[in-house]
Specification:
heterotrimer, A alpha/beta, B mainly alpha, C alpha/beta, B: ABC transporter involved in vitamin B12 uptake, BtuC, two-stranded antiparallel ribbon, C: 18 helices
């Protein structure tokens, strides 16, 4: 209990600090104002069903409401470089200058996120943007949001809830990412594939998607063998130990398939220690994910072979959908899958590094 | 006075020693790997050590055993500090992992400078390390202060940093994930050119020598135990229990900083949320495996260190036999349960009695 | 079994790591008798009781209990309780953070549920019957030690026991409370309960007991009917030698009673601490043994704690050898040559899991400083020297002090302070809960130190001990110094009168 309290306190202060830096004081921005007036009656219609409190607050929201109020629930930005980039992207897009009044809440725990969502509903935001930590348990709070006339947009992660409860879901297709990577690997036409597969935290969407493509390929082809398949839980050092162990046991392998860049880096550290060549023209093919800038630089230097993108820049997609909704058009499809690339060390350019590196 | 002891007596003496449990555990793991080598017989041995060549053209040692003592280094350093903290304050510091993240973040922040060039050091590593030491020791002092002066239970007191530490670490680097690829930055987690032994091993040995000297040339050991067992009595004998507790947390902070240096040097970067994840639990386990009472008081630092090696040996063994990824923690838990139960005083008392009765039966037979 | 015998222990043996704690001990308890178990510390009384109550497993021997066929198999305190054996230990083994009623009944219910109301009613009834001044819902920790002891006895009594063991129950009770306890014991005796009574107070033995079993060095000396064994004989049986007259030490003229004008070793004016004692003046001169006397809780310990800096001193001036000094914490006092043996040995004195050696050198070591550890060899030497000097009975200097008997633990603590060579040694209740032989040794030691020119403050609950050793007594009542006695005033009547207050006859 205490721990959770502390975590909440911590995140609240961080949010406070960050929004303060962002300078989110409502400025008289003109553009979204008409859209807002259209929105307001809808809220009032729904409101009587809810508690009086909400009803009272609703006009207040309209009164200062040149800005679109969004509540953003995200995972902890320290979780990974991906998340940091994602959070930075959100912060850069949903600014007062762009016509938004954004509040942020961070947690890696589902129940804390749900609590944050409830708080945002109380605060009567216009949009609720959610990157859910877990897939289940969201139905009630999303129904509440719907009753309060708040529109929900999911990003990055999907949840197990009826499609009618949210406007859109902007996600990466992890399975597709995995397929792209494994197809690339197959296209290298090696006579034999002996793979060390380093997995992320078991059960995470990224792990499931990226693992499945590889598992299917190994199962389907006789010349593909799995030397070892273990989870390093996104941890570079554990990945290093796993590869070290394979080397110490004199295992024969020619592919390292790591489900994120950190783990690929750890694996490479073990290879370097044992004087095993890797990368372009090396003995071992090194594959990673997430397109960290430093990882793409490794590609550019030819130390690694492949890096799959997991696009963290969902903010522009969301912005587009919100503007559409404000103008009265629903998004074309519920689930929006973002464009994602895979980079090959032989073809990557400095421009790619600058553009896609996170 | 000195008589020749019979084999039984010698066994009895060893069994009674605190260090027996980690030794026995180590022995079991060695035997297990030895037998497994014979059964699997794929031309590799757990115990094989090779004298190979590194990428940079230097001779280096490698092999499973080297991996074990290499990777155990951070844990060894933490176990030293954790043992002292446990002895004096009767509780454990669960924030060591988070403070490693902070120390590592400080180091990278300083060596990366403005982050313009990831291939050259922007500041001397020694400077970065000193800064990390100061920061980690200050956080140690913070924990120690809560425990010693505010009488907060150690686990609760250190929960604060356990929760907030990784965020602080991220904040130090503005939430960025710095990378420092300069080869010399990797010396502390890999090899120093020309030296065949992994550097972490050497650092761990230095840490052991250091604590050995401290225990020999100061009264830290006596004071910490005395304070841990009976703070009232210690005070009446002129010891300041609060200061002693505080000192142990500061010492732990120092060792945490060293562990942080090794950790970031190993991968030459940092990931705040996963670096040294759960290492506090392993460190506490090392102390428990060493047979040290977690409620404080008497301690044997060498038993804790051995405990740390046992834990790493176990991890490496499990990696080696490709234990299914998801099942790995479960295997570890089983082994841990067995070891911890074996080292519990109640069980040891029973075992002693069992040995004693076996012995008397044997003597009975001999007499007949 | 004879019909009136309810407990029969035969040939009991128990050893700890090669040290015989009990060696072929027999013990017999009859229905409706109060049976004293006597012996010096380390004689084996505690061990015998722990074997009987299942805390320890005996190595050999048989235990028979009335109503149980064949040999009683007691492997745990629970077994003992089920066999009708209840115990009240010397150190209270109740839970201070539970209520009185909970302490009396907990762990005894058959079911998983507790009827709090009826439990409290029942407890209150018992407390009234036994005249125990507390109530059921009071938290035990907030009761005085004496009341806690009474509650422990009430708990034991209520368990329908056949055998009640009272292990030093009276050491923290005042006279009236002891009387209540004795009344209770006699009541139980009349009901046919067999009571094993362990105590160091000879008076009490002769007041309530029917029989005495004497142990010495883990062996049985004998069982006696009380009339056949006069005190002097009992003491000599316990010590294992003809007693060279306890009053021997009284004969020596002790210290300088009169103020000879020399500078005191220690002098305090208006000293007062946070523990609520009224400001007091005090001095002690070289070669003097003086003492604080008064009833329990009169503030005598608080005075010496203030002198040593063990409690926070709030006001007052202190001079050591004529020089004004400030004593804020114990280390300050130690550096000025003051040593302090605390009242509560277990809580403030011993560091139980550390070896005799570490305990012995602790104070000296602290005085030498953090960066100057005493070498192992040197420590060993000190330990051996003092173990021999004070005749401390221990398997080795490596043995944890917690395993020693109370008297020997006390000797180690005394040795700890002797090793620091203090000019002024404060002994607060050094003789509490230890055997008679050691008591005398400690008193002699205090006098010997004085004869060597040291100063000693000696505190004891037993007035005659004080009269024997001290040349000047500071009398306390209600946390204030009410008088000072020396010379011809030093006699039982006068001391009692001063303690009691002006109008006593």
């Amino acid at each position: 209990m205490k721990k959770r309290l502390l975590a909440m306190l911590m995140s609240v202060t961080m949010v406070a600090g960050m929004t303060a830096c962002g300078g989110s004081t409502p400025a008289p921005a003109a553009d979204p104002a008409p859209a807002k007036t259209e929105e307001a009656p809808a809220v009032e219609e729904e409101a009587p069903a809810e508690e009086a409190e909400v009803e009272e607050e609703a006009p207040a929201a309209t009164a200062d409401g040149e800005l679109i109020k969004v509540g953003i629930i995200n995972n902890d930005p320290n979780e990974s470089g991906y998340r940091t980039a994602n959070d930075a992207d959100m912060k850069a897009t949903f600014t007062a200058d762009n016509g938004y009044d954004a509040s942020f809440a961070y947690s890696l725990k589902n129940e804390e996120q749900i609590a944050a969502a409830q708080k945002f509903i109380q605060d009567d935001v216009d949009y609720l943007l959610i990157s859910a930590a877990g897939t289940s348990g969201w139905d009630t709070v999303l129904t509440d949001a719907q009753n309060a006339g708040i529109k929900v947009i999911l990003f990055d992660r999907t949840i197990d809830a009826d499609e009618s409860l949210y406007e859109a879901s902007i996600v990466s297709d992890m399975a597709k990412e995995g397929q792209t990577a494994v197809d690339w690997l197959a296209s290298q036409n090696l006579p034999e594939y002996k793979v060390i597969h380093i997995q992320g935290v078991m059960g995470s969407a990224a792990q499931i998607g990226r693992t499945k493509a590889m598992d299917d390929m190994v199962a389907a082809n006789d010349n593909w063998t799995m030397v070892t398949q273990q989870t390093a839980e996104w941890n570079a050092e554990t990945a290093q130990q796993i590869v070290q162990s394979a080397i110490d046991s004199k295992e024969d392998f020619n592919v390292i398939y790591a489900e994120n860049d950190d783990m690929a880096k750890g694996a490479v550290a073990a290879l370097d220690k044992a004087n095993i060549s890797h990368g372009v023209d090396g003995d071992v093919i090194v594959m990673g994910y997430d397109c960290n800038k430093w990882a793409l630089e490794e590609l550019l230097a030819g130390n690694w072979n492949y890096d799959g993108q997991c696009n963290p820049f969902q903010a522009s997609y969301i912005d587009e959908i919100i503007q559409g909704l404000e103008a009265g058009t629903a998004p074309a499809q519920k689930t929006v899958i973002m464009d994602e690339k895979g980079f090959d060390a032989k073809t990557i350019t400095q421009d790619d590094v600058d553009k896609y590196g996170i | 006075m000195k008589q020749k002891k019979s084999f039984g007596e010698i066994v009895n003496v060893i069994v009674h020693k605190q260090i027996f449990i980690p030794l026995a555990a180590l022995f079991i793991l060695v035997v297990f790997n030895f037998i497994a080598d014979l059964i699997v017989n794929d031309g590799t041995s757990f115990f094989e050590i090779t004298y190979g060549m590194s990428k940079d053209g230097y001779h280096v040692l490698s092999g499973n055993l080297i991996t074990v003592i290499d990777n155990a280094s951070e844990l060894v350093l933490l176990a030293i500090g954790m043992t002292l903290v446990t002895a004096a304050s009767g509780g454990q510091d669960i924030s060591v992992g988070a403070v490693i993240a902070i120390a590592g973040s400080v180091i990278l922040r300083i060596v990366c400078g403005d982050g313009s060039d990831a291939n050259t050091l922007q500041a001397p590593i020694i400077l970065a390390f000193f800064a990390a030491c100061i920061v980690a020791m200050l956080f140690g002092a913070f924990n120690g202060m809560l425990v010693a002066y505010f009488k907060i239970q150690p686990m609760v007191a250190t929960l604060i940093l356990f929760t907030a530490g990784r965020s602080i670490a991220a904040w130090i680097n503005n939430n960025e994930l710095p990378v420092m690829n300069a080869p010399s930055f990797g010396y502390f987690g890999k090899f120093i050119p020309g030296i065949a032994v992994p550097t972490p091993v050497l650092i761990a040995i230095a840490g052991m020598i250091l604590i050995g000297l401290v225990l020999k040339f100061t009264n830290l050991g006596l004071y910490a135990q005395s304070v841990g067992i009976n703070p009232n009595s210690s005070r009446l004998n002129g010891i300041n229990p609060e200061v002693i507790k505080l000192i142990t947390y500061v010492i732990l902070g120092f060792f945490v900083a060293i562990a942080g240096l090794i950790k970031v040097s190993r991968v030459q970067s940092i990931n705040y949320s996963v670096i040294a994840k759960d290492i506090e639990m392993d460190a506490i386990l090392a102390v428990a495996l060493g047979g040290n009472p977690l409620g404080g008081g008497k301690f044997n630092i060498w038993a804790s260190i051995l405990g740390a090696y046992v834990i790493q040996m176990l991890t490496t063994t499990l990696f080696r036999y490709n234990v299914d990824a998801t099942a790995l923690p479960a295997y570890k838990a089983v082994v841990v349960v067995v070891l911890v139960v074996l080292s519990a005083p109640v069980v040891r008392e029973r075992l002693n009695r069992l040995f004693a009765s076996l012995k008397s039966k044997n003597e009975g037979k001999e007499a007949a | 079994m004879q019909d009136d015998v309810i407990l029969k222990m035969r040939n009991i043996r128990k050893s700890f790591g090669g040290v015989h704690a009990l060696h072929e001990v027999d013990f017999t308890l009859r229905r409706g008798e109060i049976h004293a178990l006597m012996g010096e510390n380390g004689a084996g009384k505690s061990t015998l009781i722990k074997v009987l109550t299942g805390v320890y497993q005996k190595d050999e021997g048989t235990v028979e209990i009335e109503g149980i066929q064949g040999e009683a198999n007691i492997r745990s305190p629970q077994d003992a309780q089920n066999s009708g054996i209840s115990t009240v230990y010397q150190e209270i083994s109740l839970c201070p953070n539970l209520t009185v009623a909970e302490n009396m009944f907990i762990g005894r219910g058959k079911g998983a549920f507790t009827d709090w109301k009826s439990m409290n009613t029942k407890a209150d009834k018992m407390l009234r019957e036994l005249d125990i001044p507390t109530y059921a819902t009071e938290q035990l920790g907030s009761c005085s030690i004496a009341v806690q002891q009474m509650v422990a006895i009430a708990r034991a009594v209520d368990m329908e026991c056949k055998v009640l063991i009272l292990d030093e129950p009276t050491s923290s009770l005042d006279e009236q409370e002891v009387e209540k306890l004795f009344k209770l014991m006699r009541d139980l005796k009349a009901k046919g309960v067999g009571i094993i009574f362990v105590t160091h107070f000879l008076d009490q033995v002769y007041e309530v007991c029917d029989r005495i079993t004497v142990l010495r060095d883990g062996g049985l000396v004998g069982e006696y009917v009380i009339e056949d064994l006069p005190r002097v004989k009992l003491v000599s049986k316990m010590l294992g030698k003809e007693l060279d007259d306890i009053s021997d030490i009284k004969g020596e003229e002790t210290g300088k009673a009169e103020d000879d004008g020399s500078v005191p070793v220690f002098e305090a004016k208006g000293l007062c601490s946070t523990e609520g004692i009224k400001p007091f003046d005090f001095y002690i001169k070289a070669g003097e043994v003086n003492g604080f006397t008064g009833l329990l809780g009169s503030g005598r310990s608080e005075c010496v704690r203030a002198i040593f800096g063990a409690d926070k001193v709030t006001e007052g001036k202190v001079k050591v050898k004529g020089k004004e000094v400030t004593i804020k914490k114990p280390i300050d006092a130690m550096k000025l040559g003051i040593g302090y043996l605390p009242e509560d040995r277990k809580r403030d004195g011993i560091v139980s899991e550390l070896s005799v050696r570490d305990n012995l050198i602790l104070a000296f070591q602290v005085m030498k400083g953090f960066f100057h550890p005493i070498s192992r060899a040197k420590a060993e030497e000190y330990a051996d020297e003092y173990i021999k000097l004070l005749d401390i009975k221990t398997a080795s200097s490596e043995t944890p002090i917690g395993r020693l008997s109370g008297g020997n633990q006390q000797k180690v603590i005394i040795a700890r302070w002797l090793l620091t060579h203090p000019d002024y040694l404060i002994l607060d209740e050094p003789t509490r809960g230890i055997d008679i032989g050691t008591k005398i040794e400690i008193q002699k030691l205090a006098l010997k130190l004085a004869s060597e020119g040291k100063s000693v403050t000696f505190i004891s609950s037993e007035v005659d001990e004080m009269l024997r050793t001290c040349s000047r007594l500071v009398v306390m009542r209600d946390r204030a110094v009410v008088g000072e006695l020396s010379g011809s005033d030093l006699n039982q009547t006068k001391v009692m009168a001063t303690i009691a207050g002006g109008e006593s006859k």
